[in-house]
């Protein structure tokens, strides 16, 4: 787990590494109560256990994965939106090769 800037959320949030997201998503569909909790409740609870952050939106968990982001922008320091980004989504600076 690592705190990184999320361009969707416009703030720093806890991001999972690949092993942590595999661990969390392996629990999908293993809950015991209503349909939504049965499908996603265990994933949200595992995300909270790993990060200490109470998330209620399952989509946020799926896009808060470190490997989906690129390296820090050389201009502003925020992570690029993707590993192959050509322009920083935060400051619009071109990515230097």
Please give the structural blueprint.
Elements: E1 2-6, E2 11-15, H1 18-25, H2 35-51, H3 58-63
Antiparallel strand pairs: 1-2
Helix pairs in contact: 1-2
Explain how this protein is built.
The longest helix has 17 residues, at 35-51. The chain is elongated. With 97 residues, the protein is an alpha+beta fold. It has 3 helices and 2 strands; from the N terminus they run E-E-H-H-H. The protein has a two-stranded antiparallel ribbon. Helix 1 (18-25) packs antiparallel against helix 2 (35-51). The model has no long low-confidence stretch (mean pLDDT 93).
Which key phrases capture this entry?
two-stranded antiparallel sheet, alpha+beta, 97 residues, single chain, elongated, 32% helix
Q: Helices and strands: which structural class? A: alpha+beta
Total helices: the number is 3
Mean pLDDT: 93
> Mind summarizing the main beta sheet?
2 strands, antiparallel
Poorly predicted ranges (pLDDT <50, ≥5 residues)? none
Q: Which word captures the global form?
A: elongated
- Order of the strands making up the biggest sheet: 1-2
Provide the gyration radius in Å: 15 Å
Q: Helix share of residues? A: 25-40%
Structural domain tally: 1
User: How far is the N terminus from the C terminus?
Assistant: 28 Å
Task: Please give the number of β-strands.
Answer: 2
């Amino acid at each position: 787990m690592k705190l990184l800037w999320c361009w969707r959320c416009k703030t720093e949030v806890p991001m999972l590494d690949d092993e942590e997201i595999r661990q969390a998503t392996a629990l999908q569909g293993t809950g015991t109560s209503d349909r939504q909790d049965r499908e996603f409740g265990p994933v949200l609870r595992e995300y909270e256990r790993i990060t200490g952050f109470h998330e209620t939106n399952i989509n946020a968990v799926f896009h808060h994965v470190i490997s989906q982001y690129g390296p820090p922008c050389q201009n502003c320091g925020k992570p690029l939106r993707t590993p192959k980004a050509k322009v920083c989504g935060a400051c619009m600076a071109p990515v230097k090769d």
